[in-house]
Amino acid sequence: MPAVRPPVAPLRGRYISLEPLSPADLPELRTAIAHPRVFAGGFGGGSAGYRADRADRADFLAWAGEYLQFGRCNVYGVRIRGGAHDGALVGTTSLGDFDEATESAHIGWTAYDPRVWGSAVNPEAKLLLFGLAFESGFGRVKIQADAANVRSRSAIERLGAVLEGVHRRDKRRADGAWRDTAIYSVLRTEWPAVRSGLHARLDALGGEPICYRNADEPVSA
Asked: Which residues form the N-acetyltransferase domain (predicted)?
């Protein structure tokens, strides 16, 4: 089937749902992700992208409205399903850079509340978005990270994505320094194996709802 940009509609998993995010949701999103640790992981251009005034509501709304590329990307809010935190908005992720001619798309613009790092949130979000992209006819889905960000790269590799290479001096970080970008992808032919691996990771969690963890505890990728 030819690749077609999918409509922005809810995607529901066992542990989370991906709901279309709108500018009206940004105050709630600010509560979840306007933290130095989130930006230190590469979101928003890196550590320097977090400023003292970024925690201010008006500043965050103006910045996030531009950074998340509403209209150009399918932008989702990540919400917990079930348990004590049912319905809580704990992050955002997007499917974008649609190129129907080459059947390629990009999963990115992702940030989560540190209290759900290392939980089911990321693997299930990727399961839902990869599935949507391949069901919509795309043959290659890119996912990338700052080449210096070991934690993010480890998380991508655990998904089963393949490293294509490092794009040197690719884009500026918020501090003005140039970053190298590690580019990974999953192809349609690789998706069944990647999907099985993601299901296995989620099955191993036993179906218990996501609970917030101490944000100061170390977490694995």
From this structure: 16-190
